[in-house]
Amino acid sequence: MNSQESRASDIRVDLLEIARVIEPGSTVLDVGCGDGSLLDYLVRERQVDGRGIELSPEGVNKSIAKGLSVIQGNAEEDISFYPDQSFDYVILSQTLQAMTRPDLMLEQLLRVGRKAVVSFPNFGHWKVRLNLGLLGTMPVNSTLDYPWYSTPNIHFCTIRDFVNLCRQANIHIEQSMAIDARGYRMRVQAIRLANLMATQGMYVITRK
Amino acid sequence: MLFFMNHETQQESKKETADEGFADVVTLGQNQPLPLDSGKKIGPFEVAYKCWGRLNADKSNVVLVCHALTGDHYVRGTNPITGKRGWWETMVGPGKPVDTDRYYVICINVLGSCAGTTGPASLNPDTGKAYGLDFPVITIGDMVRAQARLLDHLGIDKLFSVIGGSMGGMQVLQWAVDFPDRVRTAIAIATTWRHSAQNIAFHEVGRQAIMADANWAHGRYLDHDEPPHAGLAVARMAAHITYMSESGLTSRFGRNLQDRDKVAFGFDADFQIESYLRHQGISFVDRFDANSYLYITRAMDYYDLAAGHDGILASAFKESKTRFCVLSFTSDWLYTTEESRHIVRSLNAARARVSFADIEMDKGHDSFLLDCPDMDAVVRGFLSSEAEAMDGENKP
Questions:
Q1: Chain B partners within 8 Å of A71 (Cβ)
Q2: Residue B15: per-residue pLDDT
Q3: Residue B313: its chain A contacts at CB < 8 A?
Q4: B166 is catalytic
Q5: Which of B166, B320, B328, B367 does the annotation list as catalytic?
Q6: pTM of this structure
Q7: By CA distance, what is B344's nearest residue in A?
Q8: What is the pLDDT of residues B221-254, one digit of tens each?
Q9: Among B2, B125, B248, B321, fewest CB within 10 Å belongs to which?
Q10: Which CATH architecture has domain B199-298?
Q11: Which of B187, B312, B340, B348 is the best substitution to test chain A (most A C-beta atoms within 10 A)?
Q12: Separation in Å, CA of A60 to nearest CA in chain B
């Protein structure tokens, strides 16, 4: 979704942050896997047994050509057909905000996976607030790169919103990370600060 | 000793087979008849097949192509029976997705067919006459087991890939279920996991058309002169509609009239679509046997991969190590995207490795036979990535 700088491993920096939390040799389902970059990286560098779901035909074709097992489908529909607890990790990267029911999606992620890794653009970032507060318009930037009328992102949330939802839904946050505009992990822990400074939130969640 | 020498020279010469010419035919099951799902046995039986490319030293590059209902083993080159080009030249050949410079491709005519492998039009060794309805009713599973017998005979144990569309796709899935250890990758295109009521219904219309033709003579027409051409043509016409999409028909024919400015107020072929269908029917009877049509459509109707597993398809794929690629077409209403999705979901439930793409194409079920760059790209990528993975494994 965003075009950020890459390291030598040729995948997006923020995807590398996700890769870091995945145990080597585990089973992984990447929901909305795009062109399969992250999954391919995990298979090669972390020896995971990886699968993917992707909506776009281009993404599916590229993933298959990488030797990945990826199915073309709608994440919200298809995830319900996976057996309970059939993966160690289910990844939902930069896709939560495009779901019709993000709350139900989180339930599904934790039904299918023992852990879920979720990342999303933080609508609480100071630039977004400034944009909306001073200019009075919806923000368009590298992380939120569509105008309001054609965006697939229909359910924006802030880092605080996400944490609140987890609390309500009895979801345990095992690890939380604030990601900056370049895709790197920030050294902030306090929610108030993360919610203001991070362009992305990244969470490892489990069932309580 | 002589036998082995023969066998070897045969294999030498088959390393590079030209596109043209008739197929190889071998007789199998002389000593060990093939047990069929019906409980009957067949043997001896002949199997016709054709090969392309070069078999590598460890025989790890074999790709089995499975043909559809009215297809045959003439995948490439001029078909000596019809005089037409092979049915899958866009998919199979040098530099094509199933690259004959890389893979050793083999296509085997199915049991029950009329293009070389034993079928109802073949001579029954017990009577010296054509089998007719004495030919045992066969299943997709029987076809696959007959193919396995041929591969055993050729000394080929493992298949790098099995690929096919429509009934060919049914065989692909059957191969993966019945011989999981022999199939490394399976590519099932525009197919289903079981024949639906609607699928059976269309086939029954075709069979009734054949059997309603007086010339059919309870299947004994080969003893006389006149085959049931009218019935078989109608069967083909009805089936052909199911192979095309409404939008495909509209864009190609619309309500265009055939060689006339206005309707003739009669029952001639006023419309181009009528003329086209009649042509499809008439040209079909020259190359296909009516009884074969009955037997093969029956085999498809009996197809249900979940039947032996309490109706749960995922159980059929349990523990499968095969890597699957399932492809459907958006405009295919014969074997719909939803059927393919069910296969994919079942494979996922069985924790098998599966890739799936629903390819945007407006030509209906027959899309898999047509020039389709998106399909080609997926098949090419799927096969090459697996070939590379295999090369990696074989490195010390």
A1: 344, 348, 354-356
A2: 43
A3: none
A4: yes
A5: B166
A6: 0.92
A7: A71
A8: 998 889 999 999 999 999 999 999 999 999 999 9
A9: B2
A10: Orthogonal Bundle (1.10)
A11: B348
A12: 7
Could you give the angle at which helices A13-21 and A37-46 cross, rounded to 10 degrees? 50
- Tokens (6 digits) for B326: 């399932």
Residue A31 Cα distances to A72, A171, B338, B353, angstroms: 11, 19, 20, 15
CATH homologous superfamily of B2-194+304-394 equals Alpha/Beta hydrolase fold, catalytic domain (3.40.50.1820)
Q: Using an 8 Å Cβ cutoff, are B178 and B144 in contact?
A: yes
Cβ–Cβ below 8 Å for B341 and A73: yes
Contact B355 A64 (CB under 8 A): yes
CATH architecture of A13-207: 3-Layer(aba) Sandwich (3.40)
Decide if pLDDT at A47 tops 50.
Answer: yes
DSSP class of residue A96?
G
Does B129 have pLDDT greater than 70? yes
Which chain B residue has its CA at the smallest distance from A40's CA? B385
Do B349 and A65 make contact, defined as CB atoms within 8 angstroms?
no
Shortest CA gap A195–chain B (Å): 37
- Nearest residue of B to residue A27 by CA position? B351
* pLDDT at residue B390 greater than cutoff 80: yes
Residue B257 has pLDDT above 70, yes or no: yes
Catalytic residue among B73, B301, B365, B367: B365
Contact B380 A57 (CB under 8 A): no
Tell me which residue of A21, A4, A6 sits closest to A202, measured CA to CA: A21
Domain extents in chain B: 2-194+304-394, 199-298
Residue with tokens 């923000």: A139
Q: Do the chains contact at B355 and A70, CB–CB below 8 Å?
A: yes
Q: Using CA atoms, how far apart are residues B51 and B59, in angstroms rounded to an integer?
A: 14
